[in-house]
Amino acid sequence: MLTPDQARDRATDIVARAAAAGADAADAVFAADAALDVSIRLGKLEDVGRSESEELGLRVFVGRRSASVSSTDLSSAAMDALVERAVAMAREAPEDPWAGLAPQDRLLHGAPPQLDLDDGGEVSPEQLRDAARAAEDAARAVPGVTNSEGGGASMSRSVWALATSHGFAGAYAATGHGISASVVAGEGGGMQRDYAYSSARRRAHLESPEVIGRRAGEQAVARLNPGRLASGPMTVVYDPRVGGSLVGHLIGAISGSSITRKTSFLLEALGTQVFAPGVTIRDDPHRPHGLRSRPFDGEGLPVSPTAIIEAGMLESWLLDSASARQLGLSPTGHAARGVGGNPGVSTSNVFMEAGRVPPATLVEDIVSGVYVTELMGGGANGVTGDYSRGAAGFRIENGVITEPVAEFTIAGNVRDMFLALTPANDLEFRYGVNVPTLRVEGMTVASG
Q1: Res 121: pLDDT
Q2: What is the number of structural domains in the chain?
Q3: In the chain, % of residues over pLDDT 70
Q4: Is 428 exposed, middle or buried (0-12, 13-18, 19+ CB in 10 A)?
Q5: Which GO terms describe its biological process (predicted)?
Q6: 284: number of Cβ within 10 Å
């Protein structure tokens, strides 16, 4: 695999070729990755997989016309052909008044921040096999576990580079490590499945396979013999494993494309109270070894920690350069790029700040409610905010989380849910989007 410096040089080279071929402006992305994963099932090796890829994408502008092309053939002749094809396509494309590179005066200059994303280590298939087996063994050792969907362990390393014709060139490498287990508890028609996993940039930061496996097994057993809920209005408490999906609905609603197309249920909400005053949501691209940390965005702009929601107030849209131009605003450093196509919008390490009370206090006054640990299907309507999800979890009775329940639907409107949301104080950083336990008042539960 190329080093970050070599990847940056590849991207810079094809941008120079595009300018020489008649493009008024251009940017290029180089992406390479290598991954190794091992799976174990019922104590036996089930699969070993390895993948490697390298791809380069080029976007060129001729006036306000643009075109994007990509190739996995990185030979010099292929690069020349790629450039020629891209410029010819751009000359025939329709004009887009908002198209163009990011503002030159906003580009990141100097050394990008060091975020400790690459541990530089190599992991052997044998080490992954042993970790996967240990996770599955720990899960199968939990009393009540009757079968296994397997244990897994993986390691990957990627290099990403971006270069533009107006002065930006940067690259970085990142590693990713993971361990998982998925098992079944019970027999026949009463079987229940659950899983657990840990992901980290550095292998040393993974949870132990034994902890992961035991958690998967205990969660599966806890779901056995689920009951049914009565239908009606109810307080819903979201486990942190699924609560991040509510923040996902927020991110979709405040992304540039949703605002410019006027397809957001938060279209007129900037600067207004969207959540309860006790809720703050931040995006931190500089979090050391964060799962979604990055030193610059997909257009070469610097990134910085951002308050998306501050004390319940919506503080910012999430804008790439094209949507910012259309709205008469400045880009926010949230552009994201794949190898092909135009930039979109993406957040980094989004989290809701911890509240003031522990989870037990959050539920202690709930006479009848439900603690949700799994969500299925559905989602939120991006235009209206109407929300409906299939769910499973545990009944809350007189302030205590009791028996498992399944086959019910929770519904509401996301705008109302945001205002009725209270976070607990148990925030942990496990995922790309992290939230504490969340309580939402006044939802509708319908039993299946």
Answers
A1: 79
A2: 3
A3: 100
A4: exposed
A5: proteolysis
A6: 19
| Mean pLDDT of all residues in 401-423 | 97
Burial of 64 (0-12, 13-18, 19+ CB in 10 A): middle
Torsion over CA: 426, 429, 435, 438 (sign): negative
pTM metric for this prediction = 0.94
Domain boundaries, position 277: 267-351
| Cα dihedral 235, 236, 240, 241 in deg (nearest 10) | 170
Final residue in a domain of this structure, among 351, 377, 410 = 351
How far is residue 444's CA from residue 140's CA, in Å, rounded to a whole number? 37
What confidence tens digit (pLDDT) does each residue in 359-378 have?
A: 999 999 999 999 999 999 98
Nearest to 409 by CA among 383, 375, 386: 375
187 and 233 inside one domain: no
d(CA 141, CA 124) in angstroms, rounded, equals: 26
Domain stop point among 327, 351, 375: 351
Contacts 24+ apart (CB under 8 A), 404-407: 404/192, 404/222, 404/223, 404/224, 404/225, 404/226, 404/227, 405/226, 405/227, 405/228, 405/229, 405/370, 406/223, 406/226, 406/228, 407/226, 407/228, 407/447, 407/448
Tell whether 393 is covered by a domain: yes
Rounded Cα gap, residues 83 and 77, in angstroms = 10
- Tens digits of per-residue pLDDT, 87-140? 999 999 999 999 999 999 999 998 889 899 999 878 999 999 999 999 999 999
Judgement on whether residues 308 and 367 belong to the same structural domain of the protein: no
In a domain, 281, yes or no: yes
> For the chain, how far is it from start to end, CA to CA, in angstroms?
51
Residues 74 and 202 in one domain: yes
pLDDT at 323 over 90: yes
The pLDDT score that the predictor gives to residue 72 is 96
